[in-house]
Design goal:
alpha+beta; four-stranded antiparallel β-sheet; 10 helices; 11 strands
């Protein structure tokens, strides 16, 4: 047995000496494969952590409600989903009034959703501009529902919403892009042809990898002020904050309210979608796990072939 092992080792080293170029290239391929595997794995782990951090900012008890299923999709939207009736402010108010396990709600109004990207706008101030801004009309309840922290200023009030005041709360990255070494408070920014006075800046959120490194590109204005300037926009997103540990119960209550309001027959599927922040995070995790498994499988085959080549 020992002689066989020694003979095999001697033959292997002789083969390496006789085929130096082939051996070098094979070993180099193995090294590159291992390095690529480690690098890609590190990127996926970092992306997963960044997404989880970003979604954790909303809280575990946050529920997103839209006309189709919020979150990550692996298939294209159907014409039926795209043409569904949008959610509106009355839906949000009904959820708050009729769902005892919902602590608070926010309603957003925005431009029509055009796949594959959500609607965005540009914001300008004194020669500076930032694109890809999430321009929305929201309610004064937004800071509570989304667990927002403001680094400067304040959020708008119910009185400012009712009077359609042209004020805005902007994201951290918007403030950095438009106001270089300048205090953004009480300055006017131009968004889709409308001027808004900045009254607050949202503190930087976790998860900087999300949205290409700019996760804080919000320009949020009072719901009714947005409608005043953009009467053609009727897309609606409702977000509900459930009481701690009551997400499943709150979802059941919300489903009952919306099915009744949207006249969904008892034997038909929902014509709207709901996802909690934890469910969206789990979707990301499953996708990343699948990608990681595929990469490991392909890399393993390559390393196996490389090992055979060395032998």
């Amino acid at each position: 047995m020992r002689m066989a092992v020694g003979e095999n080792a001697r033959m292997a080293f002789d083969n390496l000496r006789e085929n130096k170029s082939r051996s070098f290239l094979t070993v180099l391929g193995v090294v590159i494969g291992v390095t690529a595997l480690i690098t890609v794995s590190s990127v996926l782990v970092g992306l997963d952590a960044s997404i989880r951090d970003y979604l954790s900012e909303f809280g575990a008890d946050t529920i997103f409600i839209f006309k189709f299923q919020p979150g990550i999709r692996t298939t294209a939207l159907t014409p039926e989903e795209l043409n569904r009736k949008s959610l509106n402010l009355d839906d949000a108010l009904a959820i708050k009034a009729e769902c005892p396990h919902v602590r608070n709600v926010d309603a957003q109004v925005l431009a029509r959703f055009t796949p594959p990207f959500p609607p965005s706008a540009s914001a300008r101030y004194a020669g500076h501009e930032i694109n890809g801004v999430r321009y929305r009309g929201t309610l004064p309840s937004a800071p509570d529902v989304y667990s927002l922290r403001l680094s400067k200023g304040r959020y708008f009030t119910e009185a400012e919403n009712l009077h359609r005041s042209d004020v805005a709360v902007i994201g951290f990255d918007v403030a950095n892009a438009l106001f270089i070494e300048e205090d953004p408070l009480d300055k006017q920014i131009l968004v889709r042809g409308s001027l808004y006075t900045v009254i607050g800046v949202i503190d930087k959120r976790k998860g900087g990898i999300v949205a290409g490194g700019q996760s804080d590109v919000d320009v949020w204005v009072p719901f009714r002020a947005y409608q005043k300037h953009n009467p053609q926009d009727d897309e609606g997103l409702v977000t509900a904050a459930a009481y701690p540990g009551m997400v499943d119960t709150a979802e059941d209550e919300i489903r009952g309210v919306l099915r009744r309001r949207r006249n969904v027959p008892y034997d038909k599927d929902d014509n709207f979608g709901m996802s909690s922040s934890q469910q969206v995070a789990e979707q990301f995790r499953q996708i990343i796990s699948s990608i990681a498994g595929l990469i490991v499988s392909v890399s393993s085959i390559g390393l196996l072939i490389g090992g055979v080549g060395v032998m």
